[in-house]
Amino acid sequence: MSTDNVVDTKRRRFLVNSTSVVAAVGAGFVAVPFLSSWMPSERAKNAGAPVEVNISKMSEGQLLIVEWQSKPVWIVKRSVKTLADLKRNDDHLRDPSSEEVSQQPEYAHNENRSIKPEILVLVGICTHLGCSPTFRPDIAPADLGEDWLGGFFCPCHSSRFDLAGRVFQGVPAPTNLVVPPHKYVNDNVIIIGEDEEAA
């Protein structure tokens, strides 16, 4: 038997083991980024985090927009007259008493749909197909009619909401605008995304 045909088992074992180790290390380099990609990024974690908003400089009739969970959240400072006018819309609304409980937390299930009457907090997404309505605080504009007392108008399919985010009858949107969970830290600071009831 020639020495060329003799199998060097020690050398073969060494090569097989070395190849296995290199393959395992390579698989680790591939697996770590792959598995890491399943974990939410810091940006994704922050997107769902509560948002602190200072409302101390808001004037009556002003709309402030912040982002929470990648959605626009509107904060509106309503006047005494605006609050008084809300009742005048009741006969024209689909759900004037906000009976659809999923549209607001219990602490905002009242005639103003808010914790403090003058401050309205809403998710600025139409409940029809997810467009973002425009803020239309003007009274009786030509395009919305003489009965318009201010509110939100969705340009996508003409849904209308009053200044409590309640939907009008006869429009595509099926329900009122959503009131997100929120709470007051003090008179000037609101936290969007933390629930008053859980505080």
Could you characterize what this model shows?
The protein has 199 residues and is an alpha+beta fold. The chain folds into two domains: 3-36; 47-192, Rieske [2Fe-2S] iron-sulphur domain (Rieske Iron-sulfur Protein, 3-layer Sandwich), CATH 2.102.10.10. 20% of the residues lie in helices and 20% in strands. It contains three helices and nine strands. It has helices at residues 9-36, 42-47, 80-85, and strands at residues 51-54, 63-68, 71-77, 119-123, 134-136, 151-153, 160-162, 182-186, 189-192. The strands form three sheets. Strands 1-9-8 form a three-stranded antiparallel beta sheet, with no helix packed on it. A hairpin with a 2-residue loop joins strand 8 and strand 9 (189-192). The radius of gyration is 29 Å and the shape is elongated. The relative contact order is 0.16. The model has no long low-confidence stretch (mean pLDDT 85).
Summarize the structure.
The protein has helices at 9-36, 42-47, 80-85, and strands at residues 51-54, 63-68, 71-77, 119-123, 134-136, 151-153, 160-162, 182-186, 189-192. The chain has 199 residues and is an alpha+beta fold.
